[in-house]
Specification:
The chain is mostly helical. The protein has helices spanning 2-29, 47-65, 67-70, 74-97, 102-125, 131-156, 189-209, 213-233, 236-252, 259-271, 274-302, 352-387, 405-435, 440-455, 465-487; strands at residues 34-37, 44-46, 174-175, 338-339. It has 15 helices and four strands.
Length: 488
């Protein structure tokens, strides 16, 4: 029996690294084609779910065999603690508050376990220190192919599979005009942008530390390709997250002399992207005055007795899916997404009158984007937190989007859920300070974590399946790498 157990453990030790490498390549590249419907929602079960489930089954077996190793580190225990708190919150939401559909709440809870479970796959997958770079190379290969497909979408009409609405999520093959934001193999441009802000620090760190001239050339071009793709997503949040991550990475690596050229050139490159510069300009013009007013109104929420003023955090009146007023054409000609058919012809250059009309449309789009977050989604999350401060109102109670992962955790799982979630990253910081000060791999991973945390301020990035899969798997690989160093 002991011999059989040892042989099976050896099989798992060989299978888990292969599974991790396959997922690092497959998940970014495979479009979100639906396989099975989930009743009560337009979220679909996809092929990657089956692959992840198989990998998690092997991981669970390894966990049972090597429980002591799996629970030795604080970050591993913090993830399990978050699941426990989430499970208690789920039970309270179903049997006490009764504010959720049980099957939908359970699905949301299981999805989080599915995403975060890949941490343990990565943790067990690292058998030798040099294998970590093999995993990074697999991810870089996938990133290069994501770039190639993105170019195909922009210039050659290659199809995209989107989940931006219920109809698209059925697996429709859509074509984007050359002016539309690129999403490549991802379900939307925000997902792609978050993925790129996560990967770019890893590419830059590998470029700086590589001693191979050939690899340096490849990584240098890959960095430029990924940066170009990030600009074409026109995502303000992920671009800022990228800048934060790169700045911190160069500090971690003690390459302060590179901060001005790298960050400066990144900002200069942004100026050549008309779309993203206009959206940043519109954000400053439109949102700054409104932000001051919102900050003043937050005192209404913090005050135990409330206030006589009209509070931003009063119960919202819009329906769960607010009707949005169609906008006029944006500054850069954007043609609608159309299923199939030939690629449309770009609109001619705009006249001066059309230019200023389009400028107003950009500002209107920014105002609408901010209004959905600040005037509906975020107040809704805070209202749910007020109903159940400790454990929240349960997974799925806030709908599909909150556009802020911290407020989402606060509303769905309460203060205990948010604190247990943040504890994971505090434990990561503690581990890196203890064992990762001299490891560029750990420093690059910590910069990628900062990019994720920054994205989470305005995007539900930890619920975006492709991005979440990659992040938790990379984090597990990093912790496994550091733990290997400790035990060697």
């Amino acid at each position: 029996m002991e011999k059989l157990k040892k042989s099976f453990n050896q099989f798992l030790n060989s299978a888990l690294p292969i599974a991790a490498l396959v997922l690092l390549i497959f998940i970014p590249l495979y479009p979100k084609f639906p396989a099975l419907d989930v009743p009560g929602t337009y979220v679909k079960i996809r092929v990657d779910d089956f692959l992840v489930a198989a990998a998690l089954f092997l991981t669970l077996l390894k966990f049972l065999i090597d429980r002591q190793k799996a629970t030795r580190l604080g970050i591993n225990r913090a993830i399990i603690l978050y699941w426990v708190v989430g499970g208690i919150s789920l039970l309270g939401a179903i049997f006490s508050l009764q504010l959720v559909f049980p099957q939908l709440a359970i699905l949301h809870f299981l999805r989080r376990i599915e995403y975060m479970g890949l941490f343990f796959l990565g943790f067990f997958a690292v058998r030798e220190k040099k294998e970590f770079n093999v995993f990074l190379n697999g991810l870089f290969l996938a990133t290069f192919l994501v770039f190639i497909y993105g170019l195909g979408q922009k210039f050659f009409g290659w199809p995209v599979v989107s989940t931006m609405n219920e109809e698209f999520s059925k697996g429709m093959l859509l074509r984007l005009d050359v002016w539309v934001r690129i999403s490549s193999t991802f379900a939307g441009h925000y997902d792609l942008a978050a993925f790129l802000s996560l990967v770019l620090p890893l590419i830059l760190a590998s470029l700086i530390k590589s001693r191979s001239r050939t690899k340096q050339v490849f990584l240098g071009f890959l960095y430029l390709f990924a940066y170009y793709l990030l600009l074409n997503t026109v995502s303000r949040v992920s671009f800022v997250a990228y800048l934060i991550a790169i700045f911190c990475l160069l500090l971690f690596l003690n390459k302060k002399w590179l901060i001005i050229p790298v960050v400066g050139l990144s900002l200069l490159g942004m100026l050549f992207s008309e779309d993203i510069t206009q959206r940043f300009a519109a954000t400053i013009k439109v949102e700054t005055p409104r932000l001051v007013a919102r900050l003043e109104k937050t005192f209404d929420f913090l005050s135990p007795q409330g206030s006589s003023r009209t509070s931003l955090f009063s119960t919202p009146t819009p329906s769960p899916t607010p009707a949005l007023t169609p906008l006029p054409a944006p500054l850069t000609p954007v043609l609608k997404i159309t299923p199939g058919g030939s690629r449309p012809t770009p609109t001619p250059l705009l006249s001066e009158e059309e230019f200023w009309e389009a400028q107003k449309s950009v500002e209107l789009g920014v105002e609408r984007s901010g209004g959905i977050r600040f005037d509906y989604e975020w107040p809704r999350a805070l209202n749910h937190f007020k109903k159940s401060p400790l454990l929240g109102t349960g997974f799925s109670s806030l709908g599909l989007a909150t556009d802020n992962d911290y407020l989402r955790a606060l509303g769905e799982t309460g203060l205990l859920g948010l604190l247990s979630f943040l504890l994971i990253f505090l434990e990561e910081l503690k581990l890196i300070l203890e064992k990762g000060r001299k490891s560029w791999q750990a420093q690059a991973a910590s910069a990628s974590t900062l990019a994720m945390l920054a994205n989470a301020c305005f995007i539900d990035v930890f619920e975006a399946s492709k991005v979440a899969y990659i992040f938790w798997l990379l984090l597990g690989l990093t912790v496994g790498y550091l733990n290997y160093e400790k035990s060697s």
